[in-house]
Amino acid sequence: MPTPYQTHIGSFTRKSTFFWAAVGATVGLANLWQFPYLASLHGGGLFILLYLGCLLLVTLPLMTTEAVIGRHARHGIVLAMDGLIRSAKRSRAWMAVGRLSILGAFLVLSFTAVFGAIALAYVFYGAVGRFSGVGHAEATGILAALVSDPREFRVFMGWHGFFLVMVLWVSGQGVVGGLERAFRIVVPGTLMLMLALFGLAAWYGRIDGAMSQILEMHPQDLTWGSLSAALFHAFYTLGLGMGVWAVLGAYTTPNTQLKRSILAVVLMDTLVAILAGLMIFAMATQGSAFDGERGFSLLFVSLPVSLAELPASQFVIATVFLMVVMIVWSTALALLEPVVGWFREWTGAPRGLSVLLVGLVVWLAGLASLFSFNLWSQYRLGGATVFRWLELLTGGLMIPLVSILIALFTGWCLTRNLSKSMLGKTPGLFGTIWFWVMRLVLPLVVAYIGIHYTAGSLVNMCDTGSEALWCEPGPGLVLQEQNGTPPQIIETGSAGVVDDGAGEGAGELLPAEQATENKPDLPQSLPQNAPKDGDILYHSV
């Protein structure tokens, strides 16, 4: 077995591959099923500017840090952290950072593949005309038959296995022959397909209404909740805290301009989110007003119903969900790589065997999420299925914790010379901002995100009638979902001070019993056991 720092897990051959791989890792389902909803509720173009500011000032420094850690060590996150800990002569307890990030990537990949399976099935469903002439009820029945019917779980398992085979086959070809080639073909192909579908939406859809809701400035809709929503979306959509950026940084060529490439990725992610938002809004909404849909109901019910009205709808639906499959496929490849890289560096096993073994465990772990929607749907702990607990464990605890620890370690444990050496040549202002953001800003902001995500998700589980301890709030406590952010526990007192969620300012006085009356009217036709729209699966990408 090779000793540490003698392993070589691979590298790209072209400097632009890092850009394409990073775009593939960051552009995910949240761009399709969450961004249009948030932008329309929080000021349109003003929300986009706010979101871009959160990306540049908060998440860009963390993305840069993870990538330069990997490039500096030329290893995955575990051995890279080991080297930095030795160089800085710090406690070995910091090794938990790398190990938690690998575990987080593994768990997120396990349920990401489940969503990829649904999208893959929809490609074939669209091609054979399953959605021709269907309404909301029929489309809901199709989704329920695939996802929630305990009698048909083997069919769902088949699609799940099919999707994972696609991912493992590419990864097994190697870093150059598999990953690099796939990212350089699949990601540009996805963007071209998205542009073509945007043109179709502009021709047949309601593009004027989409542009009005998403691009025009609506200052009356901008609240403090908008900042929270922008922070959540900026943090959870970029694959942070899972070792992805470290392994991609380790694969970069020596002449790759890393910081410039990361900035380009941030801007591209924002552009894709806008483009996807306009496309989805124009295709999937009825009339000229946004109906508040997001998540499962938007992507797997409303979208195929609306597309079924177009000429050549079979081809259009199959093409749209082919684009969705390509998005999830590239994300799954990026999530798999840090796990495979860690396994190879730990065991010295060849890549083919490593991919096979890791893929088998990912498949088994994914069955826990898959069965949560059908066979195990009645088994709940604290009002939540296995899938919901996995999602909460990764999104509410592990990913924020890893991000906080990376920020604290680089900001407080590394010497300034080592930090500058890792960061490389950079304008003095950027270096100063990066240093203080990592030291002070990021730990506080990410702690806020993680705590609110966890607290809101726990309370949201009480909707199932759970008798868990956290489901017994005292008098005057209500659960309020604040415009696309995870639900918050809000003390109402006697008057009931809550955010009405309608974009008319926070802190309005409402009776506690009216706390839910001002939320958007969301369709209530989802299969009973499918993930609900309130389960914000940002990083399931």
From TrEMBL:
<dbReference type="InterPro" id="IPR037272">
    <property type="entry name" value="SNS_sf"/>
</dbReference>
<keyword id="KW-0812">Transmembrane</keyword>
<feature type="transmembrane region" description="Helical">
    <location>
        <begin position="153"/>
        <end position="170"/>
    </location>
</feature>
<feature type="transmembrane region" description="Helical">
    <location>
        <begin position="396"/>
        <end position="415"/>
    </location>
</feature>
<feature type="region of interest" description="Disordered">
    <location>
        <begin position="492"/>
        <end position="534"/>
    </location>
</feature>
<feature type="transmembrane region" description="Helical">
    <location>
        <begin position="427"/>
        <end position="451"/>
    </location>
</feature>
<protein>
    <submittedName>
        <fullName>Sodium-dependent transporter</fullName>
    </submittedName>
</protein>
<feature type="transmembrane region" description="Helical">
    <location>
        <begin position="45"/>
        <end position="64"/>
    </location>
</feature>
<dbReference type="InterPro" id="IPR047218">
    <property type="entry name" value="YocR/YhdH-like"/>
</dbReference>
<keyword id="KW-0472">Membrane</keyword>
<keyword id="KW-0813">Transport</keyword>
<keyword id="KW-1133">Transmembrane helix</keyword>
<feature type="transmembrane region" description="Helical">
    <location>
        <begin position="182"/>
        <end position="204"/>
    </location>
</feature>
<feature type="transmembrane region" description="Helical">
    <location>
        <begin position="224"/>
        <end position="250"/>
    </location>
</feature>
<dbReference type="Pfam" id="PF00209">
    <property type="entry name" value="SNF"/>
</dbReference>
<feature type="transmembrane region" description="Helical">
    <location>
        <begin position="315"/>
        <end position="343"/>
    </location>
</feature>
<feature type="transmembrane region" description="Helical">
    <location>
        <begin position="262"/>
        <end position="284"/>
    </location>
</feature>
<dbReference type="InterPro" id="IPR000175">
    <property type="entry name" value="Na/ntran_symport"/>
</dbReference>
<feature type="transmembrane region" description="Helical">
    <location>
        <begin position="18"/>
        <end position="39"/>
    </location>
</feature>
<feature type="transmembrane region" description="Helical">
    <location>
        <begin position="100"/>
        <end position="125"/>
    </location>
</feature>
<feature type="transmembrane region" description="Helical">
    <location>
        <begin position="355"/>
        <end position="376"/>
    </location>
</feature>
